[in-house]
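To: structure subgroup
Subject: Chain for Friday's discussion

All,

I'm putting the inputs and outputs inline so they're searchable in the archive.
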Amino acid sequence: MKKNIMVVLEYDGTRYDGWQRQGNTENTIQAKIEAVLLKWSKSPIEVHGSGRTDAGVHARRQTANFHVDQELCQTAGMAMEYLNRYLPEDIRVVEAKEVPKRFHSRLSAVKKTYAYYVETSDKKQVFERKYVYGLGQELNLKAMEQAAGYLVGQHDFKSFCSNRKMKKSTVRRLDSIDIKRDGTKVIITYTGNGFLYNMVRILTGTLLEVGLGKRKPEDMEEILNAGNREAAGATVPPEGLFLMNVEYDWDKIPRTEGE
């Protein structure tokens, strides 16, 4: 018998090649976790993440799950303790619990929240330099908020996707875009039901161009309608991006008999 264990992770993505395991490198978050679980179980355990954060992207609450023999793992706390003992110091499990066997961290997710941090002063603060984008210019937040209003809702976000060969639907729903100032930093927070490849970084790059006066807020409508990556703004660097939270509707997750 196996248990399905869900873990919530935080990690500094600076030195990693993203979340997803890759054939040409072991330097990914998924690979590091699976290596520790292999050491524990003596057999491979596949870890499913809620999303594939890119190289250099961070997470405050990334969700993942894996199936493990209940003889080895009597409680979810045992998995959390073992992982934290052997994972690198820039990856940490902050929560663990047993979940229904049919729960899948990506497929069961109903909502995700990302935040992007922008430094507007001429130089990054020393102890935050790995976690913000150093724009070094002032921004018109009111114009950015007006532009964000065009993006909220359900749209085809093909113009905001780096995967030009995307065959699946590029329609997504953005529930909110919150833009606020924190000292010299500007924080843009996105919540939606799903995000395309590089979508948050392209949305941010486009909103920053509005904030710098290079585009008008109403241009967002034209960009959405274009369905063309070339119509949108630049893809901002990864270091300012954090996966903040993943949400689930636990009442709608199927359960097997006996659960």
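Points worth raising on Friday:
The domain at 2-107 is CATH 3.30.70.580 (Alpha-Beta Plaits).
The chain has two domains: 2-107, 109-245.

D.
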